[in-house]
Specification:
This protein is an alpha/beta fold. It contains 18 helices and 28 strands.
């Protein structure tokens, strides 16, 4: 019988004692061959030695920055913070010509007392980093001079002790630090482990950025607490050649991996029959699909493309989560059917989920994201701040359970974490996301702040974006953004602007042919306007065609509609 996880250091110590030579972490090169490894015994000693350095630096209970690249040193730094009692501030290494300002804003907000990184990354920080980064005192994570740690039982950890600041992806606002406790982290890891990890599981592949919770917690930490190998890749290696991800799974025989919806789409679009012929994906048992809207058409295309490679439909794992609840809130269970459904768009506009036949005129394809994880409750809040007792209604998704964090650093938006709602004790998390239930499985309908109201009807931007992405073959299916704008013609109501990106292939094909580009632009905008009018009864105020990659997105691939709307108003978008 599986033992519940009670302590992260305790689990690591057990693995160091029982399987010291088992590989805990592997850094894979671009072609999937290991370039470095670290065993569970070595992981325990290295993290303990660096934890000792943090204690001597008086970093206990204080923020410690991890400005590191994807690799073994990132994980070592993170675990050293947990063992030392410091607060890990997950970040990314400085990048040349990075104008996002994200790293600098994290440093300013968190006020770290130390920074952990490998020697080579420290050199990069000092060479190309912002002055705020250069001013930090670094502890190198790859120094052999540190002492070795004995295999002693670690002291108990208070569940309420903060172990990390997880900065949100900022889909609707600037990133904020979510205060994650040891109890939060253990609860989420334990729930995921109970569902997807078994004795004899052999490996995980992670190309996701480790400063993002889906990669660090959802893939790497779940692997380590269960004593299996986490194989790490650089995100850019995947983006340059998506087949590398699938090759890594195939060659390492890993059972667990995943990414946002766009990653599965890229694999279909940018792999050849020759690429697919060399893959054996029968080993893949859990393909986590989350962090952005999960599109049914992407799932269907991926299964069609890689089913012949051994990928089983039962492996696809649509899920929903957010940093404010540590990571996962709901997910498809192993053995459960894949929730590909059709609902009536007319009912959706009235905030109802109503199944319908796929060939019904107003049918909309959706994907359910499974049931709430064990030990947690999810409820739907209506407009009057009362919980819906029956399925089928759409409202704000609220979460209760041990994964719900203590809120944001500085106490921002405390009203998002009420002690009770509608007479039911919490604490609760008001997610700001819209959704409802079908047969006990959660359906995500969009962001509360993004809801578009036209002519008295509600429209979720994801639905408009999906329709636009399917309206013309030259449109980048993941490159659309819809948002509401004041519309004088609507007598004080709202109009809708839709931004549409031209696909990379069409950009290359027409970049030297202005006449062909003009014809293509007219064809796309006409097709998008017609499809939106036909499927949603919405007349677009404006349809704007953009160059590929122009729409602002978060680090996890979510469309930043607020920022896109601002750029549209300011006229700074690269319009074709």
């Amino acid at each position: 019988m599986r033992e519940p996880i009670d302590s992260i250091p305790g689990r690591l110590l057990r693995h160091a004692v029982e399987r010291p030579d088992t590989v805990a972490l592997t850094r894979l090169g671009p072609e999937g061959t290991p370039t470095s490894t670290l065993s569970y015994g070595e992981l325990w000693h290295r993290t303990g030695a660096i934890a000792d350095e943090l204690v001597r630096a008086e970093a206990v209970g204080r923020p410690v920055l991890i400005p590191e690249r994807n690799g073994i040193d990132y994980v070592v730094a993170y675990l050293a913070c947990i063992r030392a009692g410091a607060i890990a501030v997950t970040a990314h290494a400085p990048r040349a010509n990075d104008r996002s300002g994200r790293l600098e804003s994290i440093i300013k907000d968190a006020g770290p007392v130390r920074a952990l990184a490998s020697t080579s990354t420290v050199e990069s920080c000092l060479e190309i980093g912002d002055p705020s980064l250069k001013s930090l005192q670094f502890i190198a994570t790859d120094q052999d001079a540190y002492g070795t740690d004995d295999l002693d039982e670690p002291p108990g950890i208070d569940p309420d002790r903060e172990v990390m600041f997880q900065y949100t992806s900022g889909s609707t606002s600037d990133p904020r630090a979510v205060r994650v406790t040891h109890g939060n982290l253990v609860a989420n890891l334990d729930a995921m482990s109970s569902l997807f990890y078994r004795e004899g599981s052999v490996g995980t592949v992670c190309w996701l950025p480790l400063f993002h919770d889906m990669g660090l917690i959802g893939l790497v930490m779940t692997s380590l607490v269960n004593g299996i190998t986490a194989n790490l890749m650089a995100p850019e290696e995947f983006v340059m050649r998506p087949v590398r991800w699938l090759r890594a799974i195939s060659r390492t025989r890993s059972e667990h991996s995943g990414g946002p919806n766009f990653a599965f789409n890229l694999c279909v679009e940018r792999t050849t029959p020759e690429d697919r012929a060399e893959l054996d994906l029968r080993c893949w048992k859990s393909a986590m699909n989350g962090a952005e809207a999960v599109r049914p058409e992407t799932i269907e295309r991926f299964i069609e493309a890689f089913g012949p490679c051994g990928f089983d439909v039962s492996a696809m794992q649509p899920c929903y989560g957010l940093a404010e609840s540590t990571l996962v809130v709901s997910t498809r269970r192993p053995g459960a059917r894949l929730g590909l459904e059709h609902i009536a768009s007319k009912a959706l506009a009235e905030n109802r989920l109503e199944r319908c036949p796929a060939d019904q005129e107003d049918a909309v394809a959706i994907t359910t994201c499974g049931a709430p994880i064990p030990g947690h409750a999810v409820a739907i809040l209506d407009e009057d701040d009362g919980f819906m007792d029956e399925e089928g209604g759409i409202g704000e998704i609220c979460v209760r359970g041990p994964s719900v964090t203590h809120g944001y650093r500085g106490g921002e938006e405390e009203d998002r974490f009420p002690e009770s709602i509608d007479g039911r004790n919490g604490p609760w998390l008001r997610t700001g996301d819209l959704g409802g239930f079908i047969d006990g499985e959660l359906v995500i309908a969009g962001r509360l702040k993004d809801l578009i109201i036209v002519g008295g009807s509600n429209h979720h931007p994801q639905d408009l974006e999906r329709t636009a992405g399917e309206a013309h073959e030259a449109v980048d299916s993941g490159g659309c953004a819809a948002f509401a704008v004041p519309d004088a013609m609507a007598h004080g109501g709202e109009g809708v602007v839709l931004l549409v990106e031209l696909s990379r292939e069409q950009m290359r094909a027409t970049r030297k042919d202005e006449a062909a580009l003009r014809v293509l632009k007219e064809s796309i905008t006409a097709a998008v306007r017609s499809a939106i009018s036909r499927d949603h009864a919405v007349a677009l105020s404006e349809c704007v065609l953009l160059k590929s990659g122009s729409i602002p997105k978060t680090t996890s691939g979510k469309v930043r509609r607020g920022e896109a709307a601002t750029s549209w108003r300011e006229g700074t978008l690269p319009v074709i």
